[in-house]
Write a structure and sequence with these properties.
Jelly Rolls; mainly beta; about 280 residues; about 0% helix; eight-stranded antiparallel beta sheet
Length: about 280
């Protein structure tokens, strides 16, 4: 299944606990659905883990402070370099093994991961980074998708929000499969303001946190937000994520290493650490 002028509203300052580096996940905090600091091998708990033939692996020394982390490695021209697919909450029967009880309907979700590009990285943000999804059928039909990926063309040094709906405006499911692009309603691309993938910015850790709040049934009050190192970087509101669709909430978050064709411009490495999914702000 591996396929390839909005007003910026400043949210009020929220006091959030600072995330740790290693062993952050030894005790889950209130609201946390999932935490992986990679100090333990939790890879079997994801419903899918694709190492892309060893391109994406858990190794010591590449995480924050020299801890364990996930290393994604591309050769020149390589497109797919692996992914982690996490499921939780109420979801279609069958394949989507959840990391919780599998019954909750999550309509307001935060996810955070620390990201570092190797010194000397070139080529922008490597396109895909993460997304939250509402899967609505065992065939991977999607009611909504909250894409967090690097910007298009001249925006390639930035992260961007690209929300999409898989229903019509009334909430009737339109998609029939994963990435059913022809049937998605795209709700408006919004680029962030931090050039974290610029040549001058690589080599350090960034804390990337996203928030997707589904609209109330029949309303256009959904929200999509992005923070970099705890600072609001992009925001889009007034969203009708899924019309009146309410059978499932957000039930998956993906971490991805998919560099759109023609792929990596040179041999490259990217690192992930401290991946958390929560019903409340996580912080850095």
């Amino acid at each position: 299944m591996f396929l390839p002028i909005v007003a910026l509203v400043i949210s009020p300052v929220i006091a959030v606990p600072r995330g740790g580096t290693d062993h952050e996940c030894s005790t889950l905090r209130p609201g946390w659905i999932w935490c992986d600091d990679f100090e333990q091998n939790r890879l079997s708990q994801y419903f899918e883990y694709d190492s892309a033939r060893g391109s994406f692996v858990r190794v010591p020394g590449v995480g924050v402070g020299g801890s364990f982390g996930m290393r994604a490695r591309w050769a020149t021209g390589q497109v797919e370099a692996g992914s982690l697919h996490l499921a939780f909450g109420k979801r279609p029967a069958g394949y989507f093994k959840p990391v919780d009880e599998g019954t909750a309907i999550y309509r307001d979700l935060f996810w955070r991961v620390r990201v570092r590009l190797q010194p000397g990285w070139r080529g922008g943000g490597a396109n895909k980074l993460s997304r939250a999804i509402s899967f609505a059928s065992r065939d991977w039909a999607e009611a909504m998708i909250a894409h967090v990926w690097s910007g298009n063309e001249r925006d390639a040094n930035y992260l961007a929000l690209d929300p999409a709906s898989g229903t019509d405006e009334f909430g009737v499911l339109a998609t029939a499969k994963y990435n059913d692009f022809a049937k998605l309603r795209w709700l408006g691309y919004t680029r962030g303001t931090t050039p974290l993938f610029a040549d001058s910015s690589v080599g350090r850790w960034y804390c990337v946190e996203a928030h997707a709040k589904l609209n109330d049934p029949g309303e256009s009050n959904g929200v999509f937000e992005l923070w970099i190192d705890g600072k609001l970087d992009a925001r889009k509101d007034g969203l009708s994520w899924a019309g009146s669709f309410s059978e499932y909430g957000i039930n998956a978050v993906f971490l991805e290493n998919y560099w759109n064709a023609p792929g990596a411009v040179q041999p490259e490495e990217r690192y992930f650490d401290n991946f958390v999914v929560s019903t409340a702000r996580i912080g850095c």
